[in-house]
Amino acid sequence: MTAARVALITGGIGGIGTAICQRLAVDGYRVVANHHPSEQEAALSWKNDQAGLGFDIDTIAGDVASFEDCQRMIAEVKERHGPVAVLVNCAGITRDKTFKKMDADAWHAVIDVNLNSVFNVTRNVWEGMLEAGFGRIVNISSVNGQRGQFGQTNYSTAKAGMHGFTMALAQEGAAKGVTVNTVSPGYVETAMTLAMRDDVRDAIISGVPMRRMAKPEEIASAVAFLVADANGYVTGANLPVNGGLFMH
Q1: pTM of the full predicted structure?
Q2: Domain 6-188+216-241 is in which class?
Q3: How far apart are CA 68 and CA 86, in angstroms?
Q4: How far apart (Å, rounded) are the C-alpha atoms in residues 12 and 127?
Q5: Tell me, what's the pLDDT at 1?
Q6: 220 with 23: CB under 8 angstroms?
Q7: Are 241 and 189 contacting, i.e. CB atoms less than 8 angstroms apart?
Q8: Which of 10, 35, 232, 235 could covalently link to 170 via disulfide, CB atoms 3.0 to 4.6 Å apart?
Q9: How confident is the model at residue 191, as a pLDDT?
Q10: 242 forms bridges with which residues in the sheet?
């Protein structure tokens, strides 16, 4: 890889985001982790923790649900480090309810953060990637975007939409050296899943052929594969990392 390409990871201070940031830093990228503006203190603490582990990772605030704030954020990253060459759209939230009980706020919150954000951030780096003749975009979807999930019409819709975005945009970037791919994790060991009741977690794991959840590092490894120079012929793909939970 040529010198220090800039990699921006949205939702970078979360469980999966952290593993992706660390892996890309090890691989030689200049990594910038995005976080919501309300998470300023948590982001500073996270950055210090990463430095303590030997990772030089910058952080940047940005509301990915706002196109205007993404515009500002990308301009700031460019000013600090240079143009974004690698973008990982990893920001996401859940607002789970059965459809009968789901209100418009729960629907729009998830669509805005999980799906509209992919447009908001990507649109602001796209032209730079085309002009440079190089770019790597990876959208972190979910197994539940492939198979659906009870109580997650908002989340499953957003995550399925991410891969539709991937397939269409991959066609526009293909001749210009810009690849666009999706990674669809299954259940991953994060603070959120580790906080589940034991019986709930055990029930989930019993349904996974590998009888375990993924480690965040395994998701990060899939991302590292897709952004590597050596894999520039892979585009428009949806890489499942789900332990055999869903096979398509």
Answers
A1: 0.96
A2: alpha beta
A3: 20
A4: 23
A5: 43
A6: yes
A7: no
A8: 235
A9: 84
A10: none
